[in-house]
Amino acid sequence: MGDSQFVKKIVCVGAGYVGGPTMTIIANKCPNYKVTVVDISQDRIDAWNSDELPIFEPGLQERVEKVRGKNLFFTTDIDAQIADADIIFVCVNTPTKTFGEGAGSAVDLQYVEMTARRIKENATSDTIVVEKSTLPVRAAQALGTILHSGNNSVHFEILSNPEFMAEGTGIQDMEFPDRILIGSQDTPSGNAARDELMKIYLHWVPKEKLITTNLWSSELSKLVSNAFLAQRISSINSISAICEATEADIEEVSMAVGKDSRVGEKFLRAGVGFGGSCFRKDILNLVYLCEHYQLHPVAEFWRQVISINDYQMDRFVKRILSSLFNTLAGKKIALFGFAFKPDTGDTRDSPAIYISKKLYEEQAELNITDPHAIPNAKRDLQGFEDRVNFIEDPYKAAEGAHCIALLTEWKEYASLDYQKIYDSMEKPAFIFDGRNLLDHKKLYDIGFNVYPVGKPALEHS
Ligand code: UDX
Ligand code: UDX
Question: Is the dihedral of CA 354, 355, 359, 362 positive or negative?
Answer without folding.
Answer: positive
